[in-house]
Amino acid sequence: MNNDIKKIEDSLKDLVSKNEDAIKGFEKASENSKDVGIKSYFEKKVVDRMQFLRELRAAVPELDLGRVEIEGSAAGTLHRTWMDIKAFFADDNDEAMLEEAVRGDKAAINDYDNALAETMMPHRLKEIIRAQRNELQNALETSEVLEDHR
Q: Which of 62, 87, 104, 105 has the fewest Cβ atoms surrounding its Cβ within 10 A?
């Protein structure tokens, strides 16, 4: 495998891993939320991120982007443990989970920006990544609005 393809594969593997962590994190946030609307919001984010994974894997089936099962990373597992601790000690679980969603979406946007900066990324793949990044930006704005109204 040449170096350019390896860089693209590594960049996509990173996005896949981050989306897997996001799925598990939003599932955890949904578990920790009390408000039905907030819980529903996190459940929708799980569905959205699963769609992101399907799109990324379908875009380049010839690349090895990992197993189909959603496992998440060790760092993601630590973060979800932190979410449990934060929810346990927070006066407002929903507020705490929305704060984590905002933080996570900001980090995800940065990850997507890094992938888009990859110069050898094929155009069709950049289109998918850009569309997902834009959806993340919209989700971030929604999370911030929900957080402000708590």
A: 62
How far is the C-alpha of 146 from the C-alpha of 52, rounded, in Å?
23
Q: Residue 33: what are its φ and ψ, rounded to 5°?
A: -80, 145
Residue 23, C-beta contacts closer than 8 angstroms, at least 6 positions apart: 46, 49, 50, 53, 70, 72
- CA atoms of 118 and 31, how far apart (whole Å): 36
pLDDT class of 145 with cuts at 50, 70, 90: confident
pLDDT tens for 1-21 read 588 888 888 889 889 988 998
Rounded CA-CA distance 50/139 in Å is: 15
**pLDDT category, 69, cuts 50, 70, 90?**
low
Report which of 13, 12, 39 is spatially closest to residue 26, judged by C-alpha positions.
39
CA-to-CA dists, residue 29 to 41, 49, 51, 145, angstroms: 10, 14, 19, 17
* CA dist., res. 131 & res. 128, Å (int): 5
As a whole number of angstroms, the distance between CA 105 and CA 37 comes to: 19
